[in-house]
Amino acid sequence: MNKPLLAGVVGHPITHSKSPKLHSYWLKKYNIQGHYVPIDLSPKKFEEGINSLILLGFKGVNVTIPHKEAALHIAHEVSDSARKIGAANTLYFRNGKIIADNTDAYGFMENLRQNAPDWRASSGAALVLGAGGAARAIIYALLKEGAPAVKITNRTKEKAEILAQHFGDNVEVIDWNSRNECVQSVKTLVNTTSLGMTGQPDLDISLSNADCLVTDIVYNPLQTALFKQAKDNGLMTVDGLGMLLHQAVPGFQGWFGHKPEVDAALRKTVLEA
Ligand code: NAP
């Protein structure tokens, strides 16, 4: 009998992660002999822990907070997306070497492709709300997909300015207080702030004169106040759960050898997790 294939998710803490539920669903669905396990490693133990997983025969891991940047530093090879985003969320272990990738941009774009197939990044400028870790992946994705301009607005303007400098000419910083005017001139609006999440205040924005696709990467709750307002205004909307599900696809394929499908049953399973 072949040895089961092993992968997991490394974070600190890790109990909140939905990834074990997600990957276990696919392992069962495709009848693959494998395990995907949560692993808690403190920052001090991160590198040593990863090397132990390689010795144990793991095929790779997802990495989450607080290790996404450290993962880049211990990698032997880094993908273009991970380098440009400045963080890794997926590691592949091959022949004793660590290959780091970032699949958040892929997940964001595949979610839009699946749920808003007529939307095109190239149809006009995009407005990104927020300048944290997730914003970096989304700005990268929008530019790569052909958005002619990306406007960033953030409560702490300096953070948006650092991102604009990092991503170059087609990225512009807008004052947080100008978001209501700015949204009227864009074709894509993405909320990457944590506003709207359970336990956080709602995002305060008016979509009354907007004509754009609205996507909120917050998925807890699934229907944020932003999402509901966009729906009430007849705008195209995509919720954030699909991004979480799609970003897991490349890792699963790399570790377990099968490209998994993101479908309604998976959404239901992960929502109930
Ligand atoms: P992060 O690095 O901590 O960034 C948080 C962002 O939210 C910052 O821009 C911050 O602004 C802003 N913010 C927080 N409180 C605010 C407030 N009261 N008013 C205005 N702005 C506020 O977090 P992240 O990793 O980018 O994640 C952001 C959200 O995306 C989280 O809800 C996370 O769950 C979600 N997410 C979803 C996916 C998915 O797959 N769907 C993937 C990644 C993240 P300041 O800079 O001014 O503090």
User: Quick one: how many beta strands?
Assistant: 12
Strand content: 15-25%
Helix content: 25-40%
How would you classify the helix and strand content by structural class? Answer: alpha/beta
Low-confidence stretches: none
Total of DSSP H or I helical runs spanning 4+ residues? 12
Question: Gap between N and C termini, in Å?
Answer: 31 Å
Radius of gyration, CA atoms, in whole angstroms: 19 Å
Compute the average pLDDT: 97
Instruction: Describe the strand arrangement of the main beta sheet, using strand numbers.
Output: 2-1-3-5-6-4
| Overall body shape | globular
Looking at this protein, list some descriptive labels.
alpha/beta, six-stranded parallel sheet, binds NADP nicotinamide-adenine-dinucleotide phosphate, 37% helix, single chain, 273 residues
Architecture overview:
The chain is an alpha/beta fold and 273 residues long. It is 37% helix and 19% strand. The chain is built from twelve helices and twelve strands. The strands form two sheets. A six-stranded mixed beta sheet has the order 2-1-3-5-6-4. The protein has a six-stranded parallel beta sheet with strand order 9-8-7-10-11-12, with helices on both faces. Strand 7, helix 6 and strand 8 form a beta-alpha-beta unit. Helix 5 crosses helix 6. It starts with a strand and ends with a helix. The site of NADP nicotinamide-adenine-dinucleotide phosphate (NAP) has 25 residues, from helix 5, helix 6 and helix 10.
